[in-house]
Amino acid sequence: DVVMTQSPDSLAVSLGERATINCKSSQSVLYSSNNKYYLAWYQQKAGQPPKLLIYWASTRASGVPDRFSGSGSGTDFTLTISSLQAEDVAVYYCQQYRFMHRTFGQGTKVEIK
Amino acid sequence: QVQLQESGPGLVKPSETLSLSCSVSGASITSDYWSWVRQPPGKGLEWIGYAHYRGVTNYNPSLMSRITISLDTSKSQFSLKLTSVTAADTAVYFCARERDYCRGDSCSFDFDYWGHGTLVTVSS
């Protein structure tokens, strides 16, 4: 199975500052037929289910604020929160859907410094 | 608005079968992939598997021998059965829709709607 490895496991960022989360896949998640990376990012706040933020590695889901952005290529991907807000405190997960057996990263906890 | 709601026992004895249902409203379960994801207390997300109306199922290899996911279109529900449970199966179980979203020649299969989750504890 494809292993998704996130870094760091946790980070503390001041309000209004940038938060960057990395995700590395053990195999390329590029679907060559359409040149799309089959990778999603989710936000999970305490006591809640995950919420889809990003799909195709860089496309924001409906209603997601534009301070959230996804980028990357090959096997390395990044979720960036450009200006951290208090409501962004959560655990963030990457997930690949390129391969038959879906896999998630271990999660990155984002806190306020 | 699509809504999913899990139901089932919160306590299961070791070696018995865990059975959960997910009721779906606002969407038809004759399209997309209907999935289960679990989260042990304080840990990350683990994909369990999905079922599709056309009879396709896809399971996590680590759980495959113990899992059945099925759809009941008459009730707009889908279910999870996990046999021979142990304490390691204690987790919050989420049902979710893995959407089959296509735009032009590109499709995405992310999880766009989730239930709130239900805690299942395996203990005697």
Outline the structure in words.
The complex is a heterodimer of chains A (113) and B (124). By secondary structure, chain A is mostly beta strands. Chain A is built from no helices and 13 strands. Helix content of chain A is 0%, strand content 51%. In chain A, strands 2, 6, 7, 8, 11, 12 and 13 form a 7-stranded mixed beta sheet that branches. In chain A, strands 1-3-10-9 form a 4-stranded antiparallel beta sheet, with no helix packed on it. The model of chain A has no long low-confidence stretch (mean pLDDT 97). In chain B, 0% of the residues lie in helices and 54% in strands. In chain B, strands 2, 4, 5, 6, 9, 12 and 13 form a 7-stranded mixed beta sheet that branches. Chain B has a 4-stranded antiparallel beta sheet with strand order 1-3-8-7, with no helix packed on it. A two-stranded antiparallel ribbon of chain B has the order 10-11. In chain B, a hairpin with a 6-residue loop joins β4 (33-39) and β5 (46-52). Chain B is mostly beta strands and 124 residues long. Classes of the chains: A mainly beta (113), B mainly beta (124). At the A-B interface, β6, β7 and β12 of A face β9, β11 and β12 of B.
Summary?
The complex is a heterodimer of chains A (113) and B (124). Helices cover 0% and strands 51% of the residues of chain A. Chain A has 113 residues and is mainly β.
Class per helix and strand makeup of chain B: mainly beta
Strand content of chain B: over 45%
- Specify which chain pair forms the largest interface: A-B, 28 and 24 residues
| Strand runs of chain B, count | 13
Per DSSP E runs of 2 or more residues, the count of β-strands of chain A stands at: 13
The level of helicity of chain B is: under 10%
Q: How many distinct helices of chain B? A: 0
Order of helices and strands of chain A: EEEEEEEEEEEEE
The value of Rg of chain B in angstroms is 14 Å
End-to-end separation of chain A in angstroms reads 36 Å
Q: What is the CA-based Rg of chain A, rounded?
A: 13 Å
Q: Which regions of chain A contain 5 or more consecutive residues with pLDDT less than 50?
A: none
Which residues of chain B sit in consecutive blocks of at least 5 with pLDDT less than 50?
Answer: none
The chain-level mean pLDDT of chain A equals 97
Strand percentage of chain A lies at: over 45%
Gross morphology of chain A: globular
Terminus-to-terminus distance of chain B: 39 Å
What is the approximate shape of chain B?
globular
In oligomeric terms, what are we looking at? heterodimer
